[in-house]
Specification:
alpha/beta, 10 strands
């Protein structure tokens, strides 16, 4: 039986040692959509991505991908199943060239397949394409984030997990990144995103999930939340209205 559900958390409990961050969390994300995770720092948003990518094993509950349990699976297995993770911050090899960073991104594919796919990925990022043989450290912050996303796209993932893609980027570059994520979703990729640039993210998202203390408190179409004048106060504790987004998320 086919279903529109791509990702499902079922009563997931997860955390570090004796400190539980996700507390019986359950939600579903539909295939080919952008689902935005909202909530103040410490709500568990980034932990959701880490649990789904096998960086944190659930203590209880289950995580399903297309109806099959992936809870606690290794990153190698999850990559093979089509899940790619673009974490917060910069995660490149600065002294290596753009091309070499892309090669490392496709290491599980083999060099022949990687070299075949690099040109198609670079079509998404013309500025990065022009810097192909420059050290990654010489790229602007926006170009580095695009390179990270491009490295993930080499795997032709069916699911992209992306954590705070706008951090340190200009509004123009953020708009380009969001436009790319929307295009990928429209082509069938499922995107699960953590982002504190709430209003801009809601504009390109399909669903929004609000977390509080590792629990689901709300799931609605993004367009409905975008129309709510209290969205930032309700789901970010007011922090976003008075200060720039922080980089410390749990």
């Amino acid at each position: 039986m086919t279903t529109d559900t791509c990702i499902e958390f079922k009563d997931v409990v997860a955390g570090y040692k004796d400190f539980m961050i996700l507390n019986n969390l359950s939600f579903k994300a539909k295939r080919g959509t952008i689902t935005l995770l909202l909530g103040p720092n410490g709500a568990g948003k980034s932990t959701v991505l880490k649990a789904l990518f096998g960086l944190l094993k659930p203590r209880q509950g289950d995580i399903l991908l297309d109806g099959v349990s992936v809870a606690g699976a290794s990153q190698k297995v999850l990559l093979a199943q089509g899940i790619a993770f673009v974490p917060q911050g910069r995660n490149l090899f600065g002294q290596l060239s753009v091309f070499e960073n892309l090669e490392l991104g496709g290491i599980t594919l083999g060099m022949k397949t990687t070299h075949e796919r690099i040109p198609e990925v670079l079509e998404f990022f013309p500025r990065v394409k022009q810097r192909l043989h420059s050290p990654a450290a010489a790229l602007s912050g926006g170009e580095q984030k695009q390179l990270e996303i491009g490295r993930a796209l080499l795997l032709r993932p069916k699911v992209i997990l992306i954590d705070e893609p706008s951090i340190g980027l200009s509004p123009m570059v953020v708009a380009d990144v969001f436009k790319l994520l929307r295009k990928l979703a429209d082509q069938g990729t499922t995107v699960l995103m953590v982002e504190q640039n709430v209003k801009s993210a809601l504009k390109i998202s399909d669903e929004a999930i609000a977390l509080e203390s590792g629990r689901l408190v709300l799931q609605k179409p993004a367009s409905e939340l975008l129309a709510d004048p209290n969205i930032e106060r309700l789901f970010l504790g007011g922090a976003h209205t008075s200060a720039a987004p922080t980089t410390a998320t749990v």
